[in-house]
């Protein structure tokens, strides 16, 4: 029976922890972009590391140990009382003293434990920032500054743990005083009442470890309280953080083949990475530090892009170029007053399902993403298995990476992202977009009655969004990417964020951004010849 209980107990704890972790993970993956813009990544990391460790490790162990030590304490109290029945009279006052001790200790230790968890969040953030910016730190010789900051954060993170250890020692001291009172009572009663020396000896021997047991009971109880707090934080995180799908008014899946033309209209739209609640709440930190207008990432954006038009978005860093891409993908939500002012082929974006919208629009991000090392070339190139092997090979040939795949063993060989240069990674990401374009073209051809999959001259009406793919590549790779985009995506509506003027060859219009607003729009040739223009200044 005991064995069955332990097995069920272990499985129950494991399943509970897995469900809490899955719930928190689902919340993170479905959270809107405003959540990541306003939430410290260290706090989220601490939730998955520190809080989950409490749930998976500390909570079951503390609960089991509390039950065992409580039974042990009851038995010890009975043995101690055998020296003299009159000693049992002292138990109620002693229990009252222990209650007051644990009440004071519990409140203090619980707060210190919470401070311990919170103090580690900046340390995790520093670790993650250092890993991401390691090349920059070394280039500017900021290693010493990073080490000093790490030491400072590490010292701050250990202060609550040190104070917690100190109050645990204080608890031990107080409990030993209680045990000393009991020992004095046992000896006094034994000498005055002349009870059995054997029972008196057993009581005194039991008292030697009774204080430790009481100490452990209070500590296990405190640990359970802290662990339950971790459970509460995980559940609160899953319940309070809004899902991206709840931020829109409707969730409509576009009809098959949408978008048919690729016409895009953005009419007087403003957007912010902060939540709408933060912008309207006068007590929020955002409104205390800046006016709502200053928190806007995009201000009064009006832009009409026709079917098949190729538009480049230029501007300085932080001008809002990439924010337009995020706006078209519904990663960045506009303000409620202008939510219906963004349309593709006449369909308001705020009525569309997020996943379906992003599935219908082909996007090439600035930072290419890869599956874990060892995953095959084909799985990285076509994760959903939409194309056959010959199509995957032709896509790699179109961007000049087939020879790289051949040297490593072909499409089914394992791919390590570290084996590719930054330019090759961008070309690989472009090959993914080529496959999606060709698969879409093949479906259109089959729907219209015939054609060959992979045909490059058909399949217009789609949309391609490109976010600064040339920022970390050389001139040769940039030229190759430009050629592939113009050949493969003929007839597509292309919106490209770039800071290199060389990438503007063949584009119909240039949109110049500054401080989240559009300041200039026009053909690139006219913009370059405009005296005093912002675009011409960017070109210098």
TrEMBL record:
Listed InterPro entries: AAA+_ATPase, ABC1_TM_dom, ABC1_TM_sf, ABC_transporter-like_ATP-bd, ABC_transporter-like_CS, ABC_transporter_C-like, ABCC_6TM_D2, P-loop_NTPase
Gene Ontology cellular component terms for the protein in this record: membrane
CDD domains: ABC_6TM_ABCC_D2
GO molecular function, one term: ABC-type transporter activity
Primary location recorded for the protein, binned into one broad class: membrane
Transmembrane feature ranges: 73-101, 170-191
Membrane topology term: Multi-pass membrane protein
Keywords from the UniProt entry: ATP-binding, Membrane, Nucleotide-binding, Transmembrane, Transmembrane helix, Transport
UniProt KW Magnesium keyword: no
Subcellular location: Membrane
Stretches assigned to the ABC transporter domain: 276-540
Occurrences of domain ABC transmembrane type-1 (ranges): 1-226
PANTHER family recorded: ABC MULTIDRUG TRANSPORTER (EUROFUNG), ATP-BINDING CASSETTE SUB-FAMILY C
UniProt-recorded name of the protein: ABC transporter
């Amino acid at each position: 029976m005991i064995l069955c209980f332990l097995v069920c107990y272990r499985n129950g704890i494991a399943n509970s922890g897995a469900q809490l972790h899955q719930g928190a993970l689902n919340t993170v993956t479905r959270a809107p972009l405003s959540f990541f813009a306003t939430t410290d990544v260290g706090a989220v990391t601490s939730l998955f590391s520190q809080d989950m460790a409490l749930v998976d490790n500390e909570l079951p162990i503390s609960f089991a140990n509390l039950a065992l030590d409580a039974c042990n304490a009851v038995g010890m109290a009975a043995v101690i009382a055998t020296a003299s029945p009159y000693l049992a009279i002292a138990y109620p006052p002693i229990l009252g003293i222990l209650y007051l001790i644990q009440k004071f200790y519990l409140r203090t230790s619980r707060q210190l434990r919470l401070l311990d968890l919170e103090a580690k969040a900046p340390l995790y953030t520093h670790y993650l920032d250092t890993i991401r910016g390691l090349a920059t730190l070394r280039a500017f010789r900021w290693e010493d500054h990073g080490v000093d900051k790490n030491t400072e954060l590490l010292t701050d993170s250990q202060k609550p743990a040190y104070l917690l250890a100190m109050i645990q020692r204080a608890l031990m001291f107080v409990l030993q005083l209680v045990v000393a009172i009991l020992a004095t009572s046992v000896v006094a009663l034994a000498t005055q009442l002349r009870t059995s020396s054997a029972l008196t000896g057993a009581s005194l021997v039991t008292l030697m470890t009774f204080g430790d047991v009481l100490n452990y009971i209070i500590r296990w109880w405190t640990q359970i309280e802290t662990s339950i707090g971790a459970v509460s934080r995980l559940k609160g995180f899953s319940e309070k953080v809004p899902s991206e799908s709840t931020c829109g008014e409707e969730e409509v899946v576009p009809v098959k083949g949408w978008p048919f033309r690729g016409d895009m209209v953005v009419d007087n739209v403003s957007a912010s990475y902060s939540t709408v609640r933060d912008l309207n709440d006068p007590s929020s930190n955002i409104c205390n530090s800046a006016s709502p207008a200053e928190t806007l990432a995009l201000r009064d954006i009006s832009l009409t892009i026709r079917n098949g038009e190729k538009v480049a978005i230029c501007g300085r860093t932080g001008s809002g170029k990439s924010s337009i891409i995020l706006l078209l993908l519904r990663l960045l939500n506009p303000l409620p007053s202008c939510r219906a002012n963004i349309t593709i082929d006449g369909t308001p974006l705020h009525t569309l399902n997020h996943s379906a919208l992003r599935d219908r629009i082909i996007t090439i991000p600035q930072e290419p993403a890869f599956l874990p090392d060892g995953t095959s070339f084909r799985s990285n190139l076509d994760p959903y298995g939409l194309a056959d092997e010959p199509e995957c090979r032709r896509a790699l040939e179109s961007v000049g990476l087939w020879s790289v795949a051949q040297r490593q063993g072909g499409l089914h060989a394992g791919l390590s992202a570290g084996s590719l240069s930054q330019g090759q990674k961008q070309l690989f990401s472009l090959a993914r977009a080529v496959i999606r374009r060709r698969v879409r073209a093949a479906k259109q051809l089959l729907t219209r009655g015939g054609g060959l999959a992979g045909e490059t001259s058909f399949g217009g009406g789609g949309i391609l969004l490109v976010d600064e793919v040339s920022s970390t590549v050389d001139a040769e790779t940039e030229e190759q990417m430009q050629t592939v985009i113009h050949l493969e995506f003929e007839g597509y509506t292309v919106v490209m964020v770039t800071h290199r003027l060389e990438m503007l060859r063949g584009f119909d219009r240039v949109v110049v951004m500054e401080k989240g607003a559009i300041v200039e729009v026009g053909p690139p040739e006219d913009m370059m010849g405009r005296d005093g223009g912002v675009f011409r200044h960017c070109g210098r």
